[in-house]
Amino acid sequence: MSGRADSDLSPDTRAEDGDDDAGHGDDPEEAGHGGDADEARHGDDAEDTGNGGPGEYGVQGDDALRRARRARRAAVGAGAVLALAGVAAALLRLTGSAPALVPVAYACGAGVCALAAVLGSRGRTRRALWLLIAGLMVMALGDQFD
User: Fold this and answer.
1) Burial class (CB in 10 A: 0-12, 13-18, 19+), 104
2) Domain residues of the chain, as ranges?
3) Is-contact 55 43, C-beta < 8 A?
4) Are 136 and 106 spatial neighbours (Cβ–Cβ below 8 Å)?
5) What confidence tens digit (pLDDT) does each residue in 94-109 have?
6) CA-to-CA distance for 14 and 35, rounded, in angstroms?
7) In 3D, which of 53, 44, 48, 54 has the Cα closest to residue 16?
8) What does the pLDDT look like over 55-111, one tens digit per residue?
9) pTM score, two decimals?
């Protein structure tokens, strides 16, 4: 188990339909399990097709894959935009009368944001988020020297 509150129980820890000794009756809604949706997901005829079908992953797996792809795209996009902004700010500060530490800080922050974009594209979105924060902090620190 992943420890997340919204994670589903593994198949070996689920209560079977025949284990209903609490006397809830035959109504699957009342018993808290069973029903058409549950049988479609966990029934004997459900097979894992590997493409998000009604097998082991089903609808919840498709949703998780969509969220993971969205997180990767967001990490790559934010990293690329912040890296370009850092490079542009470094070039602008380099041509101005700012101390040398300012464009260096912007360039280093842009490099960290570019690294975050690379990590985000590989699926390391949490590390990418923290690197984006660190890159922005380096840029902000460099701006304080101006």
Assistant:
1) middle
2) 26-56, 68-144
3) no
4) no
5) 988 888 899 999 999 9
6) 15
7) 44
8) 555 567 889 899 999 999 999 999 999 999 999 999 999 988 888 899 999 999 999
9) 0.58
